[in-house]
Design brief:
Layout lengths: L3 H8 L3 H32 L6 H12 L26 E3 L8 E5 L22 E3 L23 E3 L7 E2 L12 E3 L4 E7 L2 E6 L6 E2 L4 H4 L7 E3 L10 H7 L10 E3 L21 E3 L6 E2 L13 E3 L4 E5 L12 E3 L3 E6 L13 E3 L3 E3 L15 E5 L19 E11 L13 E11 L13 E3 L4 E4 L13 E3 L4 E7 L11 E3 L4 E5 L16 E3 L20 E3 L6 E3 L2 H6 L5 E3 L4 E4 L11 E3 L6 E3 L9 E3 L4 E4 L5 H4 L4 E3 L6 E3 L12 E3 L4 E4 L4 H4 L6 E3 L4 E5 L12 E3 L4 E5 L12 E3 L4 E5 L12 E3 L4 E5 L2 H5 L11 E3 L4 E4 L3 H4 L17 E3 L6 E3 L2 E5 L2 E5 L8 E3 L4 E5 L12 E3 L4 E4 L13 E3 L4 E4 L13 E3 L4 E5 L17 E3 L18 H16 L4 H18 L7 H6 L2
Helix pairs in contact: 11-12
């Protein structure tokens, strides 16, 4: 027998075995093919079928409407005819009933550009998810027709896509919407903490929603609404409350409306939407209180209300919400409240930001137990305390903001423990002393704000070791010493620096260019009142500076030419209060937006600015002329101030090209000619118009149209004539109307009472005639100046009497009314720029120009007219009066004792009339009275004994007065006249007896007057019997 091993090695397997092996392999392969086929069939059934031809055609038309740029993130290369559109970039199709239909289109952040949204989109009627965010539709309108076809839509995102115009109501028909985002993102240009500018990635408020109800009324399934930077200003309180209530949007969870120009209170109806978890209303103009019922929202986790005008008390119950992760109410300066002692019970709170408010009381030590905190901002306005040391245990803090005068002491040493801090803000507080060197241990610090406190000493060198610093704000303190700008170049990331209003002397320092290479991205440099005498040469190496403030220094001469040529980004320039005399350039850079050249010595023509300049202040210089053709620079101008210069000639007609101008001040110049009619008749945007103290003449424009936006009009001290145009009633916001010192004629303008906000009316030194407020006597609803605070009618030809019925209609002189600001001023909500109203009136015996008008200044001046009759007793009801001048008229009768009720009165002038009788004793109660003039009347009797009656000149021309301060003493029988009827009757009897006895009438009158005075005194001093007084005669 042969060995099997040998056989196998020699001959291989036998044929039968080989055949069986092959057969087994074939059967196995067949089974594998069957399994693969089965798997393939199952997979095909689960995947969507190829998209329908009409869907692909619509998408291709949509693609052709887009332009791809080098900034486009999506090329849509997969969008090709003949391929399955369900597999295209950003496209998803449905299964089941919707097989082959596009249900999701996501082109968000693709950076595509298009002239408009192509209607082909609306053929994709099965869409449930549509995202076109962060594309560019070139300011086109959202189509008014088409969206109503997308009835299946649950998610719609058109944010940051540069749509414009009114949001179409058709979006409100998408009743299945769960999430709607039409917002435009915004960011803050942190120029400094006093000038915070809001900017957007596309022009703000391109989209408008005049009626928010029409958009959300039917969106009952809506859970998320994002409409940031959409203009909602036209919505009334009723619309705002109707739009967001449990009956309209019952499932709403996220309400995000930041920077929407909202000027209404927060609606209580929001509290009825129990599902709300996030409320974001920051950067609006919302006023009033935060609803107490917000504390009852069970799911509330985020409450962001920063930068509004909220007031009242913050509902403390909100802090008890266990879901609360973030609360931010900063920069609501009238919002009060306090932090609860047990605030540490919230262990998920990440943001606790109540700084820059009117919060008071102690900062609880327990705040240091909230280990989850990352951002802490607290305020204490009235409770003097040092910062709790427990805050030093919050090692995870990224930002710490402390404000309020109640926070006192030095910067604590435990600040060095907070090594994670990137932001440290101690501002508007009572902290004092030197900045500790421990601050150098916070190596991650990017923003250091220590302004408007009481810090002193020198700026520590440790500060320059914080190499990640981007922002340093040290303004309004008491820092001393000489500081070299070159010291800050050690901080390579420094972006913004403010050293203003200290006791520093800032100099350039080293001029080694190799150490200055790293300052290329320096953007904000504010060195106001830093004792600088030369234009900083460091600016030649700072091409990116956008905000430059060198105001309040002693820099003189010409602005260097390189200063204009170096900076290509400069858009804010403040050179206020220096000694410059030459601009150095005829044309200011086109990119400048805000230019303040005021209070210098500049000469020649006003410089020509670029189309982007919206504020130019050239006031208080020596400029001699305006460019004849203003057209090139006025297209974007909002504020033009050129008062107190040497401007002459006529106002150029090209000023009419300033179609959007808000404020024009050309006062105190030598301008002549007529007012261009367009400024009052055609430009509806103009809010402040000041031409005071020029040589302008002619009649005032008469065709002022509806929509006039004027808030202050000052044409005083010119040579205008004719009548005051009644069309001014179209200016419903007018607060100040001053046309004093002109040649205006006509009767008293009762029609001006139809201006509901009018508070200052100055008509003095004109040619007005007739009675004052005469129609008020005849009708009950006319001539009611309910808000008037200053009325100056002096030096006209008004006649007749002042009627008590008209005076009773001066309601604002009777009772204090709440007002948003103590100062009367113009403030634009967008530009955050203020202009303080002014006026010139006679006050305390002098002509005074009030450059700031306090709303507490209440004055009536009707002096130097032809008024007659008695002084109305109802003047005593005008209890807020601080100045009353009725001198140089023909008033008669006694001084009403009711004037003693004017406890705020500081100046009273009744001189040069025909007043008679005694000075009322009640006037001695006017403790604030500092100026009193009763001269040249027919007053008699003893002068009341009070400090405010001690000026001898106040009584000239009243020969019947006696007593201090006059040298004429009162006899023992000299007493104030009585108003008691029986005493008056007794005097009449004595007069009758003397006449009956034939005694000379002159002697009788003398006796009667003397006796009358003595008899009246009897009621005041009963210690002496009447017969003793008679014997002493």
């Amino acid at each position: 027998m042969s060995s099997p091993i040998a056989i196998g090695r020699r001959h291989g397997p036998p044929p039968l075995l080989l055949h069986l092996l092959i057969l087994h392999l074939l059967l196995g392969f067949q089974h594998l093919c069957y399994s693969l086929a089965t798997y393939s069939n199952r997979s095909t059934a689960a995947m969507p079928a190829p998209c329908l031809p009409d869907q692909a055609a619509a998408l291709l038309r949509l693609k052709h409407s887009f332009n791809m740029t080098n900034k486009s993130e999506c090329t849509l290369a997969s969008w090709r005819a003949g391929t399955d559109c369900c597999r295209w970039e950003g496209v998803r199709c449905g299964v089941g009933i919707g097989v082959g239909h596009v249900t999701s289109l996501d082109l968000g952040e693709c950076g595509l550009e298009s002239a408009a949204l192509d209607p082909a989109l609306f053929e994709l009627t099965s869409l449930r998810h549509l995202n076109l965010a962060w594309n560019n539709f070139s300011g086109s309108h959202i189509p008014t027709i088409g969206f109503e076809r997308l009835t299946e839509l649950t998610y719609l995102n058109l944010s940051n896509s540069k749509f414009a115009g009114q949001i179409p109501n058709t979006i409100g028909r998408l009743t299945n919407l769960i999430s709607l985002d039409l917002s435009t993102d915004f960011f803050l240009i942190d120029l400094d903490d006093e000038f915070l500018s809001v900017a957007t990635y596309s022009p703000a408020w391109l989209l408008v929603a005049p009626n928010i109800v029409s958009i959300v009324a039917n969106l009952h399934n809506l859970k998320e609404l994002y409409m940031g930077t959409i203009d909602l200003s036209s919505n009334s309180m009723v619309q705002w409350c109707s739009a967001f209530s449990n009956s309209t949007t019952p499932q709403l969870q996220v309400l995000s409306l930041p920077y929407c120009y909202l000027e209404v209170p927060i609606c209580e109806s929001l509290s009825g939407i129990r599902s709300l978890s996030e409320i974001n209303l920051q950067y609006n103009f919302i006023h009033g209180p935060i609803p107490e019922s917000f504390g009852d929202l069970p799911s509330l986790s985020v409450l962001s209300l920063t930068h509004n005008s909220l007031e009242g008390s913050f509902p403390s119950r909100i802090f008890q919400n266990k879901n609360l992760t973030s609360v931010d109410v900063r920069y609501n300066f009238e919002l009060s409240g306090s932090l609860p002692k047990n605030i540490s019970s919230n262990d998920i709170l990440v943001d606790l930001l109540v700084s820059s408010t009117n919060f008071s009381g102690p900062i609880p030590n327990s705040v240091g137990n909230i280990k989850s905190l990352e951002n802490l901002g607290v305020a204490s306005s009235d409770f003097s305390q040092e910062l709790p040391s427990s805050i030093g245990q919050l090692r995870s803090l990224n930002s710490l903001e402390i404000t309020g005068a109640g926070v006192v002491g030095a910067v604590p040493s435990w600040i060095a423990n907070l090594t994670s801090l990137t932001l440290l803000d101690f501002s508007n507080c009572g902290l004092s002393g030197k900045i500790p060197s421990a601050i150098g241990a916070i190596k991650n610090l990017k923003r250091l704000a220590l302004y408007k406190c009481n810090f002193s000493g020198q700026i520590p060198q440790d500060l320059f070791n914080l190499t990640q610093l981007r922002v340093i704000y040290l303004q309004y303190n008491n820092f001393i010493g000489t500081l070299e700008l070159s010291s800050f170049w050690k901080l390579p990331d420094l972006f913004s620096l403010n050293l203003s209003n200290n006791k520093l002397s800032v100099v350039d320092g080293e001029k080694n260019n190799s150490s200055w290479v790293s300052i290329n991205y320096f953007y904000t440099l504010r060195l106001a009142y830093c004792n600088i005498s030369n234009f900083p040469s460091a600016l030649s190496l700072m091409p990116w500076v956008g905000n430059l403030d060198l105001s309040g220094n002693q820099i003189h001469g010409t602005i260097p030419q390189w200063a204009w040529e170096t900076s290509s980004e400069l858009f804010i320039l403040n050179l206020l209060h220096n000694k410059f005399d030459n601009i150095g350039y005829n044309y200011l850079p086109f990119y400048l937006e805000i230019v303040d050249l005021s209070y210098n010595l500049f000469q020649g023509p006003i410089p020509i600015t670029g189309p982007d300049t919206w504020l130019l202040d050239c006031s208080n210089n020596r400029f001699s002329s305006m460019p004849f053709n203003f057209s090139s620079q006025l297209s974007g101008m909002s504020y033009l101030m050129a008062s107190r210069n040497n401007l002459s000639g006529e106002i150029p007609l090209s000023i009419c090209d300033a179609r959007d101008i808000l404020l024009l001040d050309l006062s105190y110049n030598n301008l002549s000619g007529l007012i261009p009619l367009c400024l009052l008749e055609d430009i509806n945007s103009l809010s402040v118009f000041n031409l005071k103290a020029n040589q302008l003449h002619g009649e005032l424009p008469r065709n002022i149209k509806k929509g006039c936006a004027l808030e202050a009009l000052d044409f005083s001290e010119n040579m205008f004539e004719g009548q005051l145009p009644t069309s001014l009633v179209a200016c419903r916001d007018l607060e100040v109307l001053d046309i004093g010192n002109n040649q205006i004629s006509g009767g008293f303008p009762c029609w001006a009472s139809m201006l509901p906000k009018l508070q200052v009316l100055v008509l003095k030194s004109n040619k007005f005639t007739g009675e004052v407020g005469s129609s008020a006597i005849e009708k009950d609803n006319t001539c009611e100046f309910a808000n008037l605070r200053i009325l100056d009618l002096a030096s006209n030809n008004f006649s007749g009497t002042l009627h008590h019925k008209w005076l009773k209609r001066l309601k604002s002189m009777m009772e204090t009314s709440s007002s948003a600001t103590l100062l009367m001023q113009y403030q634009h909500n967008v530009h955050s720029t203020t202009y303080q109203f002014s006026t010139s009136i006679a006050y305390k015996g002098y002509e005074v120009t009030f450059t700031k008008i306090l709303r507490t200044l209440v004055v009536i001046d009707v002096s130097d007219n032809a008024l007659h009759g008695s002084i109305p007793k109802s003047i005593g009801e005008l209890v807020l009066l601080r100045g009353l001048n009725m001198s140089h008229n023909a008033l008669t009768g006694p001084i009403p004792s009711q004037l003693g009720a004017l406890h705020e009165l500081e100046s009273l002038d009744l001189s040069s009339n025909d007043l008679s009788g005694e000075i009322p004793q009640e006037l001695a109660q006017l403790h604030f009275l500092s100026v009193l003039n009763l001269s040249y009347n027919g007053l008699v009797g003893r002068i009341p004994d009070s400090p405010q009656f001690s000026n001898n000149l106040s009584y000239l021309g009243n020969i019947g007065l006696c007593g201090f301060p006059l040298s004429k003493e009162c006899s023992n029988m000299t007493t104030p006249p009585s108003s008691h009827p029986s005493e008056e009757k007794h005097v009449d009897v004595i007069l009758f007896l003397f006449v009956g006895l034939g005694v000379g009438i002159g002697f009788a009158v003398i006796i009667v007057v003397t006796w009358g005075i003595r008899i009246k005194k009897r009621s005041q001093d009963s210690r002496f019997p009447f017969w003793k007084k008679v014997l002493c005669m």
